[in-house]
Amino acid sequence: MAERVRLLLLGGTGEAAALAARFAGDPRIEAITSLAGRTQAPAAIAGRLRTGGFGGADGLSAYLADEKIDLLIDATHPYAARMPHAAAEACIRRGVPRLRLLRPPWASIDGDRWIGASDMTDVTAKLPGLARRVFLTTGQRDLDVLAPLIDIWFLIRLIEPPVTPLPLALCEIRLARGPFRTKNEISLFRDHRIEALVSKNSGGEATYGKIEAARALGLPVVMVERPAAPTGETVGTIDACLAWLETRIS
Ligand code: NAP
User: Fold this and answer.
1) pLDDT grade, residue 44 (50/70/90)?
2) Cα-to-centroid distance, 107 and ligand 1 (Å)
3) Would you say residue 250 has pLDDT above 80?
4) Burial profile 25-61: b = 16 or more Cβ within 10 angstroms, e = fewer
5) Which domains are delineated in the chain?
6) Is 54 a pocket residue for ligand 1 (Cβ < 6 Å)?
7) By CB distance 3.0 to 4.6 Å, which of 36, 80, 104, 245 could disulfide with 236?
């Protein structure tokens, strides 16, 4: 390995930003954070940053070689469906050790009324008859399939304004960035007379308030399942990620 370990950090999450801040203060590590570039105003990232897709496993494999990357930490979001697989493949090809930092999913507890959905098409099938007023928190992608639900009113929470008009007949957009407190989420549900929540199982604290709010109000949650993750070393916390790194650089 080179004197300073060259590390590629696949980001797009709060955990990745926290890791970048830790690496920026560590003289043993030269870290590059990579973002897809979807967010118009991403949160500030400490240290070196690159933005934009690599061009699949082939592109990433070439990047690993060009940048002489020693280690890769994949801290992409649990619902990033493609990047983790490309990272796994490229790292195998280049012999680069890879770790996935994957937030543990939430587990339902007593009082939760979760209804599993494999994807947004499945959400579309599950909503009619369940609710007429729905709080949708899955982001602005893949909403086209909901367009036929012309009798359902949606409250859609997004971090940034939609790039194109939403394809929904009845909806209100609410722009907000977490964390969200349960108390405020309950007020939001009540103010909009919400009858069901649609959520990803993102895990973590920042967006758990809506799950607690739905439980407190006895409302159903249509929970979109996570995409399949590649096999390989996976940890659930930043500390475990740092411990993995220590074993490779000390
Ligand atoms: P995805 O389906 O796995 O990625 C789609 C494509 O975007 C990838 O094939 C790759 O392009 C590029 N890409 C993704 N992450 C990248 C990264 N960190 N650096 C460089 N290129 C990246 O993921 P996604 O669902 O579109 O999410 C995009 C980004 O937003 C991810 O970094 C993820 O962490 C973050 N994010 C996603 C969600 C979500 O719900 N999906 C939520 C919050 C944050 P190439 O094939 O050209 O390399």
Assistant:
1) confident
2) 25
3) no
4) ebeebbbbbbbbeeeeebeebbbebeeeebeebeebb
5) 5-104+228-249 (3.40.50.720), 114-224 (3.40.50.720)
6) yes
7) 104
